[in-house]
């Protein structure tokens, strides 16, 4: 039997045209299962991770349903509200709505905290079809009477389990209390523990349930490794890895533009051809770097997550996470740059002591442990034994220190633990990832 096409799902032509434009040829499993009942207006409980195509699974039918009803905008009111736990996801979901509605008229807006509210307030003035929001900023603007949910038609709760993990439950309950009784509800979560089921029950009415395999299936195609390394040895480790000629087309991810430049300088000095792409570079400079990378003129491209969007290079041999991302989904997107079209790709993550909590979050999302590779000369027992900070603490510590500054020797960090203390005072976490002795490099480590 042939895989059904988008056309078989009764989507309208302008949507099919937009899907064509973004290059989707066939619906993903969640799209196949969710689009028909959503077009009919059923409530939906979706057990699916980011990466499965769930955004299109709800955005397409919701856009189509909106277009069926005559458009009426009420000042400051959205017709559809999508709640997401993070600003990154809010932006991504909003971008997807914009892409899919390229050939229909749709007013959209995205609001999140951490930035000025004025442009967000302005974008809502005349009312919108779709509002994508994080809970805190939404409540804030509601309290200031810049947004009203009185006439809301559709409520989408995205990544419910992460919402709960991040402590948004009270905000969500407050928002739900403001919604009109009669509405269409969609609820997505990667996992369905009891408290999520309970929350879903308070929101949904006779929902259709759909569940799809997690994105970890993509992650499983990729040979992943994590290397525990002190922060100030990451550059040496990187240069060391490039002695292996099989690293011929490598994307290296850093968290910041500055970090990307630094890594590029280090590699260039070591005679490894590379270039950095990020938002501070001109479009021409970025395009040149990308072309050189595609043509094999440079071995490494150093990128931030945002700059890496839209990089479409097929035969990437390795993805190196020089710094782990704060968003676990970004890890999945990053490593997904290799192992395309069934090819076997490799992903190497550098992890220092403060990043261990990020690694833990990533492993939760990909539902597997990233195998440890201690077989490298900069393997750090101190990192391996370091305690795992709470995500908030780790993020604050990492950001307060900047991207690529080496920790100052002899100065005690405010939080976390010095390598020597971790080694002497605390037993390293017993780790069943790899039989360490067998792989441990005999190289003596003078550095720590
Ligand atoms: P999501 O789970 O919504 O975050 O989607 C994950 C990624 O898959 C996004 O980059 C989408 O643009 C992409 N995507 C969604 N649906 C399809 C499809 N039917 N074919 C190809 N790519 C898709």
Question: Secondary-structure blueprint of this entry?
Answer:
Blueprint: H1 13-22, H2 29-39, E1 44-47, H3 54-68, E2 78-83, H4 87-100, E3 108-111, H5 118-124, E4 128-133, H6 135-143, E5 154-157, H7 160-165, H8 169-177, E6 184-189, H9 194-203, E7 208-211, H10 216-221, E8 223-228, H11 234-241, E9 250-253, H12 257-269, E10 274-277, H13 283-294, E11 300-303, H14 305-308, E12 318-321, H15 328-335, E13 346-351, H16 356-366, H17 381-385, H18 391-401, H19 419-425, H20 436-439
Parallel strand pairs: 1-6, 1-7, 2-4, 2-5, 3-4, 5-6, 8-13, 9-11, 9-12, 10-11, 12-13
The structure holds adenosine monophosphate.
Q: Your description of this structure?
A:
The structure is a single chain. With 448 residues, this protein is an alpha/beta fold. It folds into 2 domains: 6-211, 3-Layer(aba) Sandwich (Rossmann fold), CATH 3.40.50; 222-401, P-loop containing nucleotide triphosphate hydrolases (Rossmann fold, 3-Layer(aba) Sandwich). The chain is 40% helix and 14% strand. It contains 20 helices and 13 strands. It has helices at residues 13-22, 29-39, 54-68, 87-100, 118-124, 135-143, 160-165, 169-177, 194-203, 216-221, 234-241, 257-269, 283-294, 305-308, 328-335, 356-366, 381-385, 391-401, 419-425, 436-439, and strands spanning 44-47, 78-83, 108-111, 128-133, 154-157, 184-189, 208-211, 223-228, 250-253, 274-277, 300-303, 318-321, 346-351. Helix 2 (29-39) packs parallel to helix 3, helix 3 crosses helix 4 and helix 15 crosses helix 16. Adenosine monophosphate is lined by residues 24, 26-28, 31, 50-56.
